Amino acid sequence: MSTAATRILLVDDQPLLRAGFRLILQAEPDLTVVGEAADGAAAVEATRTLLPDVVLMDIRMPGVDGIEATRRIIRDRAAAHDPRVLILTTFDLDEYVIEAVRAGASGFLLKDAPPEDLVAAIRIVADGDALIAPSVTRRLIDTYAARLPAVREEAPPPGLDHLTEREREVLGQVARGLSNAEIARELVVSETTIKTHVGNVLAKLGLRDRVQAVVYAYETGVIRPGGS
Asked: What residues does each domain of the chain span?
């Protein structure tokens, strides 16, 4: 029995980039591009009508930008349709990409990433996980952590007191951008055990995925900018 292909909406104000992405993705049998949009407003409308599984979202576009479009798409999602947003960033210019992640995006990818990384990222996000690239995550959040709310020292952040000591440790490792396999090696346990810990952390804190866990960890002081 064949599995339905992952439906993708391409959102970028540069037609050549959209064409390039389409060529790459159409070569994959498990991926299909169902539409394109050149700005955020069109992306929101296309998401409602085309019902993509993954929205490949640029940040800087005329009119409604990628941040606001992401916010609207996540706000509009229904139980029967839960699209995932994968942010495209040039990193050096997109200083507000963290806001898109906080708005509900499931990860971010550099625009100059190799084609195989683009394909892998879409599959990861479509499977319900989040794209956490250590080389990007740590630099990005460290750089823009000053935009996050100040951490209050007098009381533990809501939810942290529900975590076990090991779960807090795993949360810190997730915030560093480590994969389950890397955390397992660090803590000398099985990858299955780490997967269970991550699931417990997300459930106890009411977080959607690993990207939200990273932001939560920085917002609450579990890990500090520049910290290891």
From this structure: 6-132, 156-220
Span 167-215, pLDDT tens digits: 999 999 888 777 788 899 999 999 999 999 999 999 999 887 887 888 7
Does the domain at residues 156-220 carry the CATH identifier 2.70.98.40?
A: no
What's the pLDDT tens digit per position in 93-146?
566 767 777 788 888 888 888 899 899 889 988 887 776 655 556 566 666 555
Q: Which CATH superfamily is domain 6-132 in?
A: Response regulator (3.40.50.2300)
Strand order in the sheet with 6-11: 31-37, 6-11, 54-58, 84-89, 107-110
Strand (E) or helix (H) holding 183:
helix 180-187
